[in-house]
Amino acid sequence: MHLEILVEDQSGKKALDILVPNIIGPNHTFVVRAYKGIGRLPKNLKGTSDPSKRILLDQLPKLLRGYGKTFAAYGKNYQAAVIVICDLDDQCLKRFKHELLKLLNECDPQPLTRFCLAIEEGEAWFLGDLDAIAKAYPDVKSDILNSYVNDSICGTWEILADAIYPGGSKKILERGWQEVGKQKSLWADNIAPHMNVSENKSPSFRYFYSQIIDLVSEKTS
């Protein structure tokens, strides 16, 4: 099985490049493709925005149609799937999933696809493994981490920053959003190598994990 994994930013790619091999093992292949933000699904689901801007949801209609045609051209012996990963942010989960599935259903041919949403943000997956955070940042403020409820809508990256960054999220924001992106990439580099992919407490990470396991198990059974 080959997995094409689409993520909305570079920090997500860094984390998944480390985590996915620990899930799929050596007998499968994958590529993580990072975009420059999440954007919005086009209203008509046709996707006519500028591809050079590389905004994930803006380009998703075109991407899924392209994958459908590419996978079909290889024939039935080519086993591949697309996994789309993005932050839920403040969107309604039920409505967002409905829009994504509607888009997929309009593809002909339709690529094998799974949609995995990080609730609320990708840092929720790090916060699902407090031991990994403590190993990466021994001076972590445990009281802040212990007050976090997994996959809650609460300003996820800010909680992680408050726990591990001197001065917390406020200090990072004083330096601008470019600094936020820089720190998120550092967290991915430092925390992901310590994560136990089968014991994560984040429900949205567990869903992502289960989808990959189902895909690779189906094609190897």
How would you describe this structure to a colleague?
The chain is α/β, with parallel strands linked by helices and 221 residues long. It folds into two domains: 2-121 and 202-220, Rossmann fold, CATH 3.40.50; 123-194, no CATH class. The protein contains ten helices and four strands. The chain has helices at 10-24, 56-74, 93-105, 123-127, 130-136, 142-146, 156-164, 168-174, 177-191, 203-220; strands at residues 2-7, 29-34, 80-87, 113-118. The protein has a four-stranded parallel β-sheet, sandwiched between helices. Helix 1 (10-24) links the parallel strand 1 (2-7) and strand 2 (29-34). Helix 1 packs parallel to helix 9 (177-191) and helix 7 crosses helix 8 (168-174). The longest helix is centred in the first third of the chain and has 19 residues, at 56-74. It is globular. The model has no long low-confidence stretch (mean pLDDT 91).
Low-confidence spans: pLDDT under 50, at least 5 residues? none
CATH class of the largest domain: Alpha Beta
Reported CATH architecture of the largest domain: 3-Layer(aba) Sandwich
Number of distinct beta strands: 4
Short structural summary:
The chain has 221 residues and is α/β, with parallel strands linked by helices.
What is this structure's SSE topology?
Elements: E1 2-7, H1 10-24, E2 29-34, H2 56-74, E3 80-87, H3 93-105, E4 113-118, H4 123-127, H5 130-136, H6 142-146, H7 156-164, H8 168-174, H9 177-191, H10 203-220
List keywords for this structure.
single chain; 221 residues; alpha/beta; Rossmann fold; 2 domains; 10 helices; 4 strands
